[in-house]
Amino acid sequence: MTRILFGRRLTVVGVVAMSAGLVAAMVAPPDRVQGDVQRLMYIHVPAAWLAYLSFAVTLGSSVGWLWRRTARYDRVAAASAEVGVFFTGLAIVLGSIWGKPTWGVWWTWDPRVVTTAVMFFVYLGYLALRRATVDSVARARRSAVFGVVAFVQVPIVHMSVVWWRALHQPPTVLKPGDPSIDHVMLATLLLNVLAFTLLYLLLLRARMRLAVVEEELERTSLGEGQELAGNAVLAPRLERS
Amino acid sequence: MKRYRLLAFSGVGVVAILAGVLLFGNLNENLVYYLTPQEALAQRVEFPDGRRFQLGGFVEKDTVVRTQDGLRFAVASGVEPGSPSITVEHHGAPAQLFQAGIGVVLEGSWQGDEFVSDTMKVKHDENYQPPDTEGGAQ
């Protein structure tokens, strides 16, 4: 398991899955009403679902940190939130591009669109909070609490189209009952979800490796007994004085 | 530790209140994205001529007529015949997917018995089917 996760194989499998997903998205039948524009679904929906998953992982590892106080949980929570913000942004941008030809507008104050934007900013706030706290234990504690509370956004985003009247259509797959989608299209969508999940793991792994290096750097550069940077440089002086 | 427990409790409390308000609070009145023709007709007095709101419904079949600078058609609350409908005078180009039977959200105001709109959004449903299949929407 760890060898697959931490070896180079993940990259290879990820690239293969993404290529297969792209090909499948191109050869899948077009939609009856929307035509080829509907193909945007194969990246818009996985991006949105992976945003949910990312924030769920942040929730889980935040709880894990509060319970066990292991630095590793904090690293996973931070990395996953960062990747989640990326996927949320991607879903919003792709949704906007999809909205113009189908709805007729780039943006509208629709409940799904607005709650997704709020989720984006809430997790940007999470990342900002991490930057604003210097002490690593205080940072882990504060962001763990934030990571737990912020997750309330995810069910709100998902249920927004059910709870309120919206322009965005209600869920096709993530709902009770049979998915209201052609089965070839559904298979294509699920393949792309798998590809995006692998992309998520790749990004998470890269971000966690970076976090380890960053912590190392922090430890060595802020270590005690070291000279402050710039100490050797003399302040400029007027020559005649 | 005590401080932390307080923080956790207040956090859980805030989440519970938020969830309760969202689930049971009557936020719907303030969050209505559009009115259906039925509601728009029932609330006619609250929306005098010129007061803008969004009207959403389905484009009735065999009612779409081109006009000089737009379209005239009827918007109904449901797809079944006989559901309450309003005649719409739309100024401007229709949205790309505009067709009889599709959902639309129009922005505009009452003008007598007609709804005059200048912005149209098409609302597509959650069913995806290839072109050669019939009746994908159950």
Automatic annotation (TrEMBL), chain B:
GO BP, one example? protein-heme linkage
UniProt xrefs under Gene3D superfamilies: Nucleic acid-binding proteins
Q: Per its UniProt record, what InterPro entries does this chain match?
A: CcmE, CcmE-like_sf, NA-bd_OB-fold
- Which residues make up the binding site for heme? H124, Y128
Cellular localisation: Membrane
Q: Could you tell me which Pfam families the record lists for this protein?
A: CcmE
| Keyword annotations of the record | Cytochrome c-type biogenesis, Heme, Iron, Membrane, Metal-binding, Signal-anchor, Transmembrane, Transmembrane helix
Q: Which GO terms describe its cellular component?
A: plasma membrane
Gene Ontology MF term list: heme binding; metal ion binding
Protein name, UniProt field:
Cytochrome C biogenesis protein
- Origin species, per record, is Prauserella flavalba
